[in-house]
Amino acid sequence: MPPTPPPLDGIRVVDLTGYIAGSYAAMMLADLGADVVKVEPLEGDAFRELPGFFGWNRGKRSIAVNLKAPEGREIVERLAARADVAMENMRPGVADRLGVGWEALAALNPRLVYCSVTAFGSTGPYADRPGFDPLLQALSGAMIVQGFLGPPQYIRVAVTDYYTAALAAQAILAALFVRERTGRGQRVETSLLHASLALQSGNTVQYAGKPTVFRENPTYRLYEAGDGEWFFLACGNQTFWVKLCAALGLEPLADDPRFASWLLRLDNSRDLLPLLEATFKSRPRAHWLALLAEHDIPAAPVQPLPAFMDDPAVRHHDLVREYDHPEVGRLSMLGQPLVFSETGTRDPGPPPTLGQHTDGVLRELGYATDAIAALRAGGVVKGPVT
């Protein structure tokens, strides 16, 4: 049986995004098989100088276009007229001023799904503010949670950006599904503000008498072993707690009324924590990880990301791909993160260089060779001559 095409095979995406949240959302669609054309300014995406750019833009085709020129806007209009999806993460109003906002492009293509990603929403009291992941971490309380009982901590993984991207891709897929039933596109929107709360769905629950769980949990925390190496112990329920007591030779603790539940272990952490800290300090990490695994107790070593990328489980699932890239040479990055039982997937390919596909995309849009040369000479487009 010949391989089936990927889920979004045939879906065309005009990607007007930059930075992380918008770019990664579009890359998610490319991972699913969509043909994503990244429309960059002549100087390139503002985050092109960051190594992470590769991890937010693989599998796309890049064209470099001056959107402030009427001829540049016409290129986007031609792309949108035949596209299924258009995406932007400009400040509210900017896309409209450039002539590539929802109303302008929907007038050309009523079936278009248009996605806007903003910092604080396209309306509201903060709509005009610039916004980045750490600012929403600070505003939403995520830094306080990460700091636990000490000073606030900046989560270096851009969790708000990444979850905003996931929400944007989810909204686009839902809108494409609706279009299959109605024949019409629509505008969808999410923001870093939306994602910062959605990330903390459990923490947002408030009611009178809510237990305070924001305390030191001796059975769900980092521990330093005797050799100075760290690991995380994750006894997340009573079953694992009983197993832990048996594994460590501390069976009486399993019947101790002070530690009979998750909340009681929180209440009495000052009694329990020193016992566990002293125990784990007595032997090296490898000993504890082997013992905990033997007793089916969740635990994991603290290690750098490159070590995890070489983990047998990561390699088994083909979650690392390697490419030869013209700018950096051999490039390792994320593989396909989704698995389908009946639908094929494909290697989306490496991230593009700036304007790498300008000529090819323009030819698809009907531009002749001399017209492309004129656009390049006029400073409307940029890219290698192909």
Describe this structure in words.
- By secondary structure, this protein is of the alpha/beta class.
- It is built from 18 helices and twelve strands.
- The strands form three sheets. Strands 6-5-4-1-2-3-12 form a seven-stranded mixed β-sheet, with helices on both faces. A three-stranded antiparallel β-sheet has the order 7-8-9, with helices on one face. It has a two-stranded antiparallel ribbon with strand order 10-11.
- Helix 1 crosses helix 8 and helix 8 (159-182) packs across helix 9.
What is the fold-level CATH name, i.e. the topology of the largest domain?
Rossmann fold
Largest sheet: 7 strands, mixed
- Please identify, by name, the CATH architecture of the largest domain: 3-Layer(aba) Sandwich
Q: Helix and strand string, N-terminal first?
A: EHEHEHEHHEHHHEHEEHHHHHEHHEEHHE
Low-confidence stretches: none
CATH superfamily of the largest domain: Crotonobetainyl-coa:carnitine coa-transferase, domain 1
**Structural domain count:** 2
Number of distinct helices:
18
How many strand elements? Answer: 12
* Rg (C-alpha, Å): 25 Å
Order of strands across the main sheet: 6-5-4-1-2-3-12
Shape: elongated
Integer average pLDDT: 95
Distance between the termini: 36 Å
Helix content: 25-40%
Strand composition percent: 15-25%
Top-tier CATH class of the largest domain: Alpha Beta
Question: Helix/strand-derived class?
Answer: alpha/beta
